[in-house]
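Supplementary Methods. Inverse-folding protocol.

Structures were first reduced to a discrete structure-token string of length 294. This string, shown here, constituted the complete conditioning input.
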């Protein structure tokens, strides 16, 4: 397998995991994919804000259409692009702040995500990116434009039947809690987890109040195995940082409990917890099993 293909294949496997988690949602037609989160699902919004957290330069995008960087933190497509295509929608979900797209383009899919952001507003301040609350404000603006463009009836159908995907949280721990003085002096790590879960619950409830019914709440990957964390783990032989992985697994369990709770409390809510942890760790621990050419 060529090295340039590796990231796309891993994202494809990651996307398949998401799709397996969304089987019951997929029973009904999904007219649009609406995305919130961080660099894992940012398709270029950060290109249009004053931040250094951008990927608008090579080698990013080398395997994307035309071979040009798009603002995706990937050599090609990101997971939500693959998911959109799997649902029979567009092959790439555009960034809301990209002026080359219009509301008619966003009607079948849009991402409000911003690389470097988190649940915690303090996380977005680290690199001056879009906070999660602002992503929600952009979504409200999107709703207004969608209704003006399509009429209330059709727009409301899209809003109700769309799949809402949320992928965020890693930066709260690695770029904020463990890297910047502040939150670690205010909260123990377990208290901070609970603080973030509370924000997650408020966010999904806000989406529900705005008409969302099909939501995928993404968990954390084994973040101790991210390249930056392994590179910094010199005393550990540049292996995965197990404490960070254990934290991710613990936090994911709390997010899963939140999903179960809100599905019971919110009438008509159809939310799933999409957990990338297991499959990503399996890829890292058994790479030869995934050494294939699609």
């Amino acid at each position: 397998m060529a090295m340039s293909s590796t990231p796309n294949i891993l994202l494809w496997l990651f996307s398949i995991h998401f799709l397996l988690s969304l089987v019951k949602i997929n029973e009904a037609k999904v007219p649009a994919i609406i995305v919130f989160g961080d660099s894992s699902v940012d398709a270029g919004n950060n290109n249009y804000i004053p931040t250094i957290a951008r990927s608008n330069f090579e080698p990013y995008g080398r395997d994307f259409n035309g071979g040009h960087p798009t603002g995706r933190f990937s050599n090609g497509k990101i997971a939500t692009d693959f998911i959109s295509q799997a649902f029979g929608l567009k092959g790439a979900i555009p960034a809301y702040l990209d002026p080359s797209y219009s509301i008619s383009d966003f009607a079948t899919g849009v991402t409000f995500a911003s690389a470097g952001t988190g649940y915690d507003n303090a996380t977005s301040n680290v690199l001056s990116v879009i906070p999660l609350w602002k992503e929600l404000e952009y979504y409200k603006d999107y709703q207004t434009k969608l209704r003006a463009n399509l009429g209330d009836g059709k727009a409301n159908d899209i809003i109700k039947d769309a799949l809402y995907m949320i992928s965020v949280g890693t930066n709260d721990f690695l770029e904020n809690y463990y890297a910047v003085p502040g939150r670690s002096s205010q909260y123990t790590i377990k208290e901070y987890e609970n603080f973030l879960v509370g924000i997650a619950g408020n966010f999904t409830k806000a989406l529900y109040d705005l008409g969302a019914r099909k939501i995928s709440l993404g968990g954390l990957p084994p973040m101790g195995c991210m390249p930056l964390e392994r590179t910094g783990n010199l005393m550990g032989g540049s292996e995965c940082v197990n404490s960070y992985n254990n934290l991710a697994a613990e936090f994911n369990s709390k997010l899963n409990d939140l999903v179960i709770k809100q599905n019971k409390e919110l009438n008509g809510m159809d939310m799933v917890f999409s957990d990338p942890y297991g499959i990503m760790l399996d890829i890292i621990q058994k790479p030869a099993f995934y050494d294939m050419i699609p």
